[in-house]
Structures are given as C-alpha cells and as structure tokens.
Amino acid sequence: MPCEPIPVGDDPDDDAYALIPIDLDVVDYDENENIAYQNNATGVKITYFPVIHTRKGSIGYKLEWNGLSMIYTGDTKPETNSLKQACNNVDGVNKGVDVFIHEMIVPAEIWAMKAARLTDPDDASEQAVEIATTVQNSSHSPQGAFGYLLSQIEPRPRLTVATHFPTADDTVACAMKSVGQHCRVVRGRDTLPGEGAARITWSFDLMVISVFPERIVEQQGKVQEFGFSATYQPPPGTIVDPGDFNTPKYHYPDQSGGTSGDPYAQIDTSTAICACDSDTECNYRIDGY
Fold first, then answer.
1. Sequence-separated contacts (24+) of 13-21 with Cβ below 8 Å
2. How distant is the alpha carbon of residue 175 from its chain centre?
3. What span, in angstroms and rounded, lies between the C-alpha atoms of 262 and 73?
4. Of 111, 174, 177, 236, which has the fewest Cβ atoms less than 10 A away?
5. Can you name the residues that pair with 105 across neighbouring β-strands?
6. Range 234-245 average pLDDT
7. What is the pLDDT at residue 40?
C-alpha cells in the first residue's frame, strides 16, 4: 500500500477498485506536513498547498519523482504558495521545477468579448465585463499578474504551461505582450530559451508532456479514429502478465482457478428492472439489442 488511509466500507486493501479517501487539510495547512501521497517503492511523492479560489474550490499539487518535479496549481488568483513551490527552495537553494502548470486568463473585457463571440471588446456589454471582472477577482490570474508571478520565480521553470485560457492567435499574442512586460518569454518548443527567459506553452486537449533530465517534449495524444476507449499501456517492465493486477472484489474464482466477473457483487438489485422476470416473461433482450 502506498499510503495508510482505510478503504471505504469493506473494500480490502489490495482491491484494485477500492476507494481510499485522503483528507487534505488546507485550513490548518502546515507546509512541513503536506504530503498527499507517497510511494517509497516507486519514489513518487505528491505534496499539496492551498491556493486562492472562491469557496476554497481549488488546491495546488507538486509531483516529485526521480529528481524531476511538476506543479499544477489549479484555478487560482496569483498568490505566494505557488511562487514558493515553483522556486522549490531546498536547503536554502532555489532548485526550480521542471514543469509549472498555472492558470492564466485574458482581461475581463476580452473574456466577455470571446464569450459573446464578438470581435471587438468595445462591443461587449458593461454587465458582461462586470461579471467577468467579479469572477476573475474571486478566483483567477489575469495575464499581467501571471507575468509578474513568473518573473519572481528563480530559476525559471523549464516549461510553463498556461491553463484556463481561451487560446486563439489574438489572445495568445496579447498575453505574450503582457507577460513580456515582466520577463523575457519564448513560445512553445524552443528548448533553449536562454538564461532568465521563460518557455511558455498553452494547454490543449490530449496534451502530452514528456519530461527528461535533458529535455522536455510537447506532444499531442492520438485517439483512434474508430474507437470508444483507450487501450491501457502499462509502463515498461511493470506488468508481465494481466494476472499481476490486483483482483477487484466483484470477481470470484472460477472452475479453472482463474477469476470470472461477478457484476452484481457491489450493487443492490432490489429496484432493478430485469431483462426477464421468468422463463417466459421478458422485458427486453438480454444480449443488449
């Protein structure tokens, strides 16, 4: 077990589908006791930190593994916990992080314009701009503030990823100008941005970031054109045989000594509408058609 919390109900510890809740205390947050997950076998460690979002609706995380690190802030106003985590001070020395994922939003008038599918911010209604401003003030980081925050991180993250952003040619150009007022920035795949410069990219669907000690590669995942679900590919060397998976408790031993599915083990069927009520009375086809 990578952690100690007790599974929900009667789920056994080694059940592959067990629910194990972990309560993260962001009210009485102690940065020295902020471990959300730690697996000594793999070396994976995830710590957490509070950020600023209305109703405390967001939390930041830092993933560390094998000397590499990544931060995901979630939605937040600019604040100091993210800054401290990104500086990654160890024994008085700022080591920095490899990947810094932080939200950035356009100015309120641009947000209102884009939401209404307009092309000129002057055409956005005052009410729409006021609502966007209220939302930003409660929970989000405008692009200028994002630039200032980034300028305070020394050394710069090897890659900074902007999330929560309405990405388009004009919005990215506007954001680059704002961020550039605070620190030198380069776009996307420039792996050698130069000393003191920040390499920035924008998040997109199916984004894949491969991080190595010597390089960071931005890619896009590919989904099969005719398919409904992804094919699971375990990390190399982790699973030799499908039987190496922990067995979910809704399986049971079959006559061959293997396991067979029991889909009814974890559900209450007292209110279920069955395919057939008897050998002669059926409500719908049992084969799904």
1. 14/246, 15/246, 15/247, 15/248, 15/249, 16/245, 16/246, 16/247, 16/248, 17/248, 17/249, 17/250, 18/249
2. 22
3. 40
4. 236
5. 142
6. 60
7. 87
Instruction: Report d(CA 6, CA 18) in Å as an integer.
Output: 10
Closest CA to 198 of 229, 245, 167, 152: 152
Whether the predicted model's global pTM rises above the 0.90 cut: no
Query: Which H or E element spans position 101?
Result: strand 99-103
Residues in the chain: 289
Q: What residue numbers bound the domain in which 124 lies? A: 35-220
Predicted confidence (pLDDT) at residue 226 exceeds the cutoff of 80: no
Could you give the angle at the alpha carbon of 151 between the alpha carbons of 149 and 152, nearest 5°?
A: 70
What does 227-288 look like in DSSP terms, one character per residue?
A: -SSPPP-PPTTT-SSGGGSPPPTTEEE-TTSSEEE-TTTTS--TT---SBSSSS-BSS-TT-
Would you say residue 71 lies in a domain?
A: yes
Total domains, the chain: 1
Write out the DSSP string of 169-238.
HHHHHHHHHHHHTTS-EEETT-S---TT-EEEEE--TTEEEEE-SS-EEEEE----SS-SSPPP-PPTTT
Quick one: how far is CA 164 from the chain centroid?
12
* pLDDT of 221: 85
Q: Is 15 inside any structural domain?
A: no
Over the stretch 170-221, which tens digit does the pLDDT of each residue have? 999 999 999 999 999 988 665 555 667 899 999 999 999 999 999 999 998 8
| Helix (H/G/I), strand (E/B), else coil: 64 | strand
With bands split at pLDDT 50, 70 and 90, how would you rate the model's confidence at 259? low
Query: Does some domain include residue 240?
Result: no
**Greatest pairwise CA separation for the chain in angstroms:** 78
